[in-house]
């Protein structure tokens, strides 16, 4: 039986620079009651993702900004605890976008039932969910790697980058990744099985380090970071190389507009293709992604790590931790206890 009140995280003020916990507030509010045709869902896990930083800024963008004084939104997986409709029954696990709160009601729109099949249900927020699909579409459809290509992946130990690395290996490519700690480098080499990896914080020149790791150049660069990583990649790309623009986390907290890469003319000289994408434009690939990823996981070709923070009250700290490099793989917040049998 659901409690009478639950907690939710609201945006208290719009962050300037790197967010702080003072930019958020936790509030108690009555647990909503489902009306006819609705279900009540108890969240078990929620996702924190770098793109959410952009929604904290009041500006026109591809997604509307979060509203002050209202709960934030994001990916979540939970369990139906009360149902007043026929499509979703009590006990089912569902994937939704009503994170940052302990309970929510829904008419079922936007909810996707999920069943554990070789992976825990929380994996639908990571390797089997939006980050996995982002890696799949970004590398295969935008990067178009060919066997024998060299792929360079920034933020290679993150939720997206780690999957990109492994899909690259599956496609017969040589994969080089950068990460922000020696522990992440070890994971990339030992578990993700990349060909080379380095701690970008421990090298003098990122451009020279990449040249040393990729002496013949880079065919595909998967961009998650921006800044010096993009400049280093531009200098080391092969002619007709492809740069997949997925994200630029190094710029998300800039209080002032950051200068563009000084060597962008390399894109002209080398006849490069730079293409940005949003995973929401590629939902037609969900079926192929689910089939391929399910098979790769079963065959042991794709592995993943999660960083789990307990308690909804710690969701802001988990989100801020993304920008400090505190996660390996997907950063998740465990909102409530897992019921018996929840994998």
Low-confidence stretches: none
The major pleated sheet works out as:
7 strands, mixed
Task: Please write the string of helix (H) and strand (E) elements.
Answer: EEEEEEEHEHEHEHEHEHEHEHE
Helix content range: 10-25%
Task: Describe the 3D structure.
- By secondary structure, this protein is an alpha/beta fold.
- It has 8 helices and 15 strands.
- The protein has helices at residues 130-143, 161-170, 182-190, 206-213, 228-236, 266-269, 286-298, 315-322, and strands spanning 5-11, 24-30, 39-47, 76-83, 93-96, 103-106, 112-114, 150-153, 174-179, 196-199, 218-223, 237-245, 273-276, 306-310, 330-334.
- The strands form 3 sheets. Strands 3, 4, 5, 6, 7, 14 and 15 form a 7-stranded mixed β-sheet that branches.
- Strand 12 (237-245), helix 6 and strand 13 form a beta-alpha-beta unit.
- Helix 4 crosses helix 5 (228-236).
- The radius of gyration is 21 Å and the shape is globular.
- The model has no long low-confidence stretch (mean pLDDT 94).
What's the SSE blueprint?
Layout: E1 5-11, E2 24-30, E3 39-47, E4 76-83, E5 93-96, E6 103-106, E7 112-114, H1 130-143, E8 150-153, H2 161-170, E9 174-179, H3 182-190, E10 196-199, H4 206-213, E11 218-223, H5 228-236, E12 237-245, H6 266-269, E13 273-276, H7 286-298, E14 306-310, H8 315-322, E15 330-334
Parallel strand pairs: 8-9, 8-11, 9-10, 11-12, 12-13, 14-15
Antiparallel strand pairs: 1-2, 3-4, 3-6, 3-15, 4-5, 5-7
Brief summary:
The chain is built from eight helices and 15 strands.
What characteristics describe this protein?
alpha/beta, seven-stranded mixed beta sheet, single chain, six-stranded parallel beta sheet
């Amino acid at each position: 039986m659901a409690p009478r009140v639950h907690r939710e995280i609201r945006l208290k003020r719009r962050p300037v620079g790197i967010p702080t916990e003072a930019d958020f507030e936790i509030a108690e509010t009555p647990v909503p009651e489902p009306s006819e045709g609705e279900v009540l869902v108890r969240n078990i896990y929620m996702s924190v993702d770098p793109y959410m930083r952009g929604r904290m800024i009041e500006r026109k963008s591809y997604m509307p900004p979060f509203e002050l004084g209202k709960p934030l939104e994001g990916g979540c997986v939970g369990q139906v605890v009360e149902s007043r409709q026929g499509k979703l029954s009590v006990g089912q696990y569902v994937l939704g976008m009503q994170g940052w709160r302990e309970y929510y009601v829904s008419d079922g729109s936007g909810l996707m039932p999920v069943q554990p099949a070789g992976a825990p249900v929380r994996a639908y927020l990571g390797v089997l969910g939006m980050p996995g699909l982002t890696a799949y579409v970004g590398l295969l459809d935008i990067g178009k790697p060919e066997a024998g290509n060299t792929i360079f992946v920034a933020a290679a130990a993150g939720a997206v980058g780690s999957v990109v690395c492994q899909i690259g290996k599956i496609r017969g490519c040589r994969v080089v990744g950068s990460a922000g700690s020696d522990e992440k480098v070890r994971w990339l080499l030992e578990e993700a099985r990349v060909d080379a990896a380095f701690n970008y914080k421990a090298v003098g020149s990122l451009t020279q380090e990449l040249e040393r790791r990729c002496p013949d150049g880079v065919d595909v660069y998967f961009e998650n970071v921006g800044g010096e990583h993009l400049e280093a990649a531009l200098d080391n790309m092969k002619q007709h190389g492809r740069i997949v623009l997925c994200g630029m986390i190094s710029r998300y907290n800039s209080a002032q507009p950051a200068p563009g890469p000084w060597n962008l003319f390399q894109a002209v000289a080398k006849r490069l293709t730079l293409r940005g994408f949003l995973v929401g434009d590629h939902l037609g690939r969900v079926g192929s992604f689910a089939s391929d990823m399910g098979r790769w996981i079963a065959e042991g070709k794709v592995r993943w790590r999660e960083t789990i923070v307990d308690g909804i009250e710690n969701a802001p700290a988990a989100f801020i931790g993304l920008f400090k490099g505190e996660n390996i793989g997907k950063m998740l917040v465990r909102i409530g206890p897992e019921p018996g049998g929840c994998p």
